[in-house]
Amino acid sequence: KCSIFPLMPSLRLCLDIAEFTIKNIPKWNPISVYGNAIRESGGNAVQEVAFALAHAMAYTEMALKRDLDVDEFAPRLTFYHNVNNELFEEVAKYRAYRRMYAKIMKEKYNAKKRHSQMLRVFAKTSGVALTAQQPYNNIIRSTIHALAALLGGCQGVFVASFDEALSIPTDMAATIAARTSQILIEETGVADTADPLAGSYYVESLTDEIERRALEYLNKVEMMGESMKFGPKMLSGVIAGIESGFFENEIALTNYRKWKDIESGKRVIVGVNKYQVEEEIPIQLMKVDMEVQRVKIERLRNFKQSRNQKETEEVLKEVEKVATSGENIMPTLIEAVKARATLGEMINVMKKVFGEYKGVSCFV
Question: Are 93 and 152 in contact (CB under 8 A)?
Fold first, then answer.
């Protein structure tokens, strides 16, 4: 994962992958902008849209710096996002997001192709919104989340299992999660119409509000980039925002306020701060047989013993050399895989060159 490394090497590796796949693997989507982590870390709907859009714009500007055509790069971007409890807000979030992205790609980056302006988004129903208390309530929560994703126009949705707050999903919990999305898609008709809530006064006004507040964030990030000399303003602003802790602090502050509201009872979480019951955990939890660990370790040991160790070591030295040189590293990593180097070995070599990412402190 690129995020193992410091910011600038991570950006370089992301664009190495994008550049290589655009030229060599025409049906591969190299970058998925990850808004899910923003929300699961405590951010709100506006921050999820704004911060993910800022990162998508930064990737686009870095691709343009490499002389990649926006109409080659943009259609390969995908987005991975979250769906939380507030149904109408979530629908409006995706409506605003889609509208903003199309306008930005068309007007700011001069994208001509229709696919360059399309927001292709896969949504995951929230895991952090699920509770360990009264866990069967989570089936209802996840159903509402999935419904919001479909009403908001997401191309795909992953439904979290009701026992996610307690353990790895059991087979029964995973099956219920799968059936939730299947029933919504096959039996309800909500996926048969594009943008079914369009025209609702409330949804339209909420869409406008989310767009307005998200644009305020984007303008703030761009202003943060004006003092840097790295390049385009949004790219510079995102770099400044990460290095200064701006994004993390905004998310942490929002999360702090949310939990203060939960503790005070202002925000109700059923089974947690209202309608509590005395209960033991009423469900079966997944237990992982540690024999799995032993088998995996033995398999890795056999894999290393069966390869040509000298050949592997030589190609790992080449990985280090290319990482130092600044060339596109993808062809060398592919050769390393062919020489049966492990992912961990390749990462350790790149750590020697790039170092490791150290998080910033939040100020909340």
Answer: yes
Conformation bin of residue 274: beta by default, left when phi > 0, alpha when psi is -120 to 50: beta
Q: Is 83 exposed, middle or buried (0-12, 13-18, 19+ CB in 10 A)?
A: buried
pTM exceeds 0.70 = yes
Distance CA 87, CA 80 (A): 18
How distant, in Å, are the alpha carbons of 54, 99, 134 from that of 93?
Answer: 15, 10, 29
160 Cβ contact list (under 8 Å, min separation 6) = 124, 125, 126, 127, 130, 138, 142, 145, 177
Nearest-angstrom CA–CA distance, 134 and 166: 11
Contact 126, 160 (CB under 8 A): yes
Tens digits of pLDDT across the chain (364 residues): 457 899 999 999 999 999 999 999 988 999 999 999 999 999 999 999 999 999 999 999 999 999 999 999 999 999 999 999 999 999 999 999 999 999 999 999 999 999 999 999 999 999 999 999 999 999 999 999 999 999 999 999 999 999 999 999 999 999 999 999 999 999 999 999 999 999 999 999 999 999 999 999 999 999 998 876 667 889 999 999 999 999 999 999 999 999 999 999 999 999 999 999 998 877 888 888 889 999 999 999 999 999 999 999 999 999 999 999 989 999 999 999 999 999 999 999 999 999 998 876 655 5
DSSP H/E element including 182: helix 171-187
Could you give the CA distance from residue 250 to residue 97 in angstroms, rounded to a whole number?
Answer: 19
Tell me, what amino acid is at 122?
F
